[in-house]
């Protein structure tokens, strides 16, 4: 944790230097984002305990491939004249019981599980509206390598060795299809010399890993608000965008968001689809509250988000808190 804090400090020190002139002369190909979500920021290690994601979104002036154009035109609710965006993501998420020192956790506790996935995203942006369609393929179970990843990191940082991975969910392929629509409202309203905007969103997700409907909104307030939809998050989380509009110099904004989800399927609580496994009685309604800050400097964006998630299963002994760090670079 000390090493991670040092890295964050170095990244924030870097923004104090002037905007490098050479970045203005190079044509940008896209935005690469790294997302880390972990509950260790709040001195716990349980339930949704870690998620990492790597996302690549080509720049706006890079022509979309033919497959993206054809697919976008086939989706009837996509705007016909909107700009077509596409992107790719790869990531891993892991879930554990409340006490990782117990080799055989109680059946009422969150099952151990891992999720290794890749995703393709397609978006159409039309002024103040963004439509996103995502298809995610992945693997749940020991093949996700979540056990090896957690044990390796815990050994490096000197944390307790997790004992309950022998009880994790079994191997299962996963498919998730997600649709999301966001609107930028109250754009560029000036308040006390800074700018304010509001972004409501609605969506639906189907698959054997996640099935839910969601709705919420995010408000942003700060200096020189960029023309995007906030920092990216790992599913299921409040939506953002994998790209951002870089500025020369220093920019910042604060944001707060809320989302509610009506959950029909969560494999990490319901257990395996086609075989017996551990499971708990999930709650059908789950809410997220997020608060955070974004700092822009030239072609680099840094963000930190605090997430408070309501109880996801009936025997859960409290809400979940975790932090999310995002580093995005346009090059």
């Amino acid at each position: 944790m000390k090493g991670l804090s040092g890295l964050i400090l170095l990244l924030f020190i870097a923004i104090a230097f002037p905007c490098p002139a050479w970045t203005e002369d190079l044509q940008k190909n896209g935005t690469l984002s790294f997302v880390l979500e972990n509950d260790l920021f709040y001195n716990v290690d349980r339930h949704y305990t870690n998620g990492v994601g790597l996302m690549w979104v080509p720049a706006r002036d890079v022509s979309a491939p033919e497959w993206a154009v054809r697919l976008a035109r086939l989706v009837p609710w996509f705007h016909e004249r909107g700009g077509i965006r596409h992107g790719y993501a790869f990531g891993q998420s892991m879930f554990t019981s409340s006490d990782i020192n117990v080799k055989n956790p109680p059946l009422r506790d969150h099952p151990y599980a891992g999720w290794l996935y890749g995703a393709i995203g397609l978006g159409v942006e039309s002024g103040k509206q963004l439509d996103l369609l995502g298809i995610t393929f992945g693997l749940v179970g020991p093949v996700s390598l979540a056990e090896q990843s957690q044990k390796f990191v815990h050994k490096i940082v000197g944390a307790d060795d997790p004992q309950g991975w022998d009880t994790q969910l079994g191997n299962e392929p996963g498919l998730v299809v997600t649709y999301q629509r966001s609107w930028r409202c109250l754009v560029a309203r000036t308040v006390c010399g800074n700018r304010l905007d509001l972004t409501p969103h609605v969506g639906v997700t189907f698959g054997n890993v996640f099935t839910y409907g969601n709705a919420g909104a995010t408000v942003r307030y700060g200096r020189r608000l960029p023309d995007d939809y906030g920092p990216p998050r790992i599913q299921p989380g409040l939506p953002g965008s994998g790209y951002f509009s870089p500025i020369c110099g220093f920019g910042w904004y604060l944001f707060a968001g809320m989302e509610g989800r009506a959950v029909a399927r969560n494999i990490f609580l319901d257990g395996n689809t086609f075989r017996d496994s551990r499971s708990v009685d999930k709650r059908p309604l789950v809410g997220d509250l997020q608060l955070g800050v974004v700092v822009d400097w030239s072609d680099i964006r840094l963000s930190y988000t605090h997430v408070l998630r309501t109880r996801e299963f009936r025997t859960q002994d409290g809400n979940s808190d975790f932090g999310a760090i995002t580093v995005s670079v346009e090059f």
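The helical segments are 2-14, 22-25, 66-74, 146-157, 267-270. The two ends are 29 Å apart (CA to CA).
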